[in-house]
């Protein structure tokens, strides 16, 4: 860049920054430290060349769309998107600085900040989506369950299917001296907690974690283990596991290969549950506030594009995601869950307009109550080994989930008419009491300990896990 060009660029950045600061001042609402800095500095990014990681799942779509539709470029960013082998490699890449950020499991920045596994101060300034996972069982297991399942007038199974229907199958395995094994993608993944929630709601214990243990099989009726998402179908086909919890397109891949049957979606387990986040190092956001704001603006625009006009852009999104540098699955497999339908079995495709939500229903806003729910499940199954006061859960949620950064990026988009005002919720960071769970147990994010106590299977106050089992009152 010539000196003249550089001077012009810096001048435009200063002018843009001043305009943004005037806009924020006109809002009449104070911004907290980093958020105000990010918003005011948003005229010129400090680090225009970025590398972001992702796993080959359809819910990485906001990143792919931000790249392919030019939203990153509009914000002055030159972004490389790099697929990662598994969630551990991705996490290490962000912590070590090889990646500037990543499409990340909602539980990963929380767990890292709590020191569960690797300790690092990570933040989640935006949620990438709602829903998007399912639980698939092998043909053999589904065949053992199917005769007992309630049927609709069309002869097809009524949904949601309860894990209670799996109990006799698990019992038969135990009688034969065989463990019943299922896969999930990572110990602190939503997939793990959704699978555990579904099993426990049906009366099956998915096991507890001892301190430092990543297996979580103490007292388990069903043994869960980690398998990277793209390897799920092959692992199922090999008979290593009898089912799995994973994001798309890897449930639909099992249907296409005729090796398994999805039996329940995560939306049926927890209606409109949060799924992935953009994970960043806290010091990255502090060092590069304008870059962080620019990234968030680009992703918000991509999320809006994905949900625009009832999903009119989804067919194009499917073509983009099917590319080998993104998800790399057949377009038909991706479309089977991405375009308002979900295929449970050949000949059993049902409406599922909310299976993937990226922008609607304030999908991008990082609610404290979502982070707290994840921590309740960590405590429920022993990953958080001891009790904590309700205030502790909120303190930790605020350290990781950063609505201040989200608002600093989103408010200028509202001011410019890019997104509607209702895209930003009027909230204290908590959703209303949630009754959208498969077992009908209500969740109030303000009262995490009372919620943990209300769940039939799981640790209760005063209990701990040892290799010998659960101890305490």
From TrEMBL:
Keywords: Cell inner membrane, Cell membrane, Membrane, Signal, Transport. InterPro entries: NrtA/CpmA_ABC-bd_dom. The keyword Iron-sulfur does not apply. Its main location: membrane. The keyword Secreted does not apply. Residues 1-25 form the signal peptide. It comes from the Bacteria. Pfam families: NMT1_2. It is found in: Endomembrane system. This is CmpA/NrtA family ABC transporter substrate-binding protein.
